[in-house]
Amino acid sequence: MAAPAALQRSVVSPAGRHTASLIFLHGSGDTGQGARAWIKQILNQDMAFQHIKVIYPTAPARPYTPLKGAFSTVWFDRYKISNDCPEHIESIDSMCRQLTDLINDEIKNGIAKNRILIGGFSMGGGMAMHVAYRFHQDLAGVFALSSFLNKDSAVYKALKRNESVLPELFQCHGTADELVLYSWGEETNKMLKSLGVSASLHTFPNLNHELNRTEIEKLKSWIEKKLPVEAAKANE
Q1: Is 122 a catalytic residue?
Q2: Choosing from 88, 105, 200, 209, which is the catalytic residue?
Q3: How far apart are alpha carbons 115 and 110 in whole angstroms?
């Protein structure tokens, strides 16, 4: 079978020397360009850095069961939008392979793996947790905004067998979220902590299934802490 085509992506280049990369995965039905535009609208400018390239890939359209099988740009399929059902592991694993190709593209560009962050909004954050905690435990960190993992997630199963140091998790969730309940995000945070992940959960009262400026600014500060500017080498 032919390898799937590389994921389309929208990129915000660093203002200076590129020494780190950030992969931001959009929510279900959105695109990389859409997620970038949403953040730009909230901040009144792109989320941009001196040294970090920001990559917004787009999920390929596929049939999505919660939409009665209609095609949607989703990272994986779900049997339903619930934390209490099995994961659609075939579609999750297939996308983990495609996102591994994206990580490897950055490594080929000379970026060390511990200088790459992955995360996203809603389904994008769930996808990022699968990629990092199951297959790429040497990434710099993971962020999950209004996201959750199913109760019997393959992520939890992988971490039960794990001995290595894990990427830190930065999680945000609105208490008024009616699509991905706050309790689902909180339960995910507690489970990952119990399995050895250093995880923070930032709570936003009255925030629904959306992003806001305070949240993006907190995320930006955390990104800069995890991926600080590297001092230029003497021979450069």
Answers
A1: yes
A2: 209
A3: 10
* Cα-based torsion angle of the residue sequence 160, 164, 165, 167 in order, rounded to the nearest 10 degrees: -70
In the chain, where the domains are located:
9-226
Instruction: Pick the closest to residue 117 from 90, 143, 83, 91 (CA basis).
Output: 143
Catalytic residue chosen out of the listed positions 122, 146, 147, 153: 122
Residue-wise pLDDT for 109-167, tens only, equals 999 999 999 999 999 999 999 999 999 999 999 999 999 999 999 999 999 998 889 99
pTM recorded for the entire structure: 0.96
Residue tagged 């560009």 (tokens): 109
What CATH architecture applies to the domain 9-226? Answer: 3-Layer(aba) Sandwich (3.40)
Give the separation between CA 213 and CA 44, rounded to whole angstroms.
10
Residue 209 annotated in active site: yes
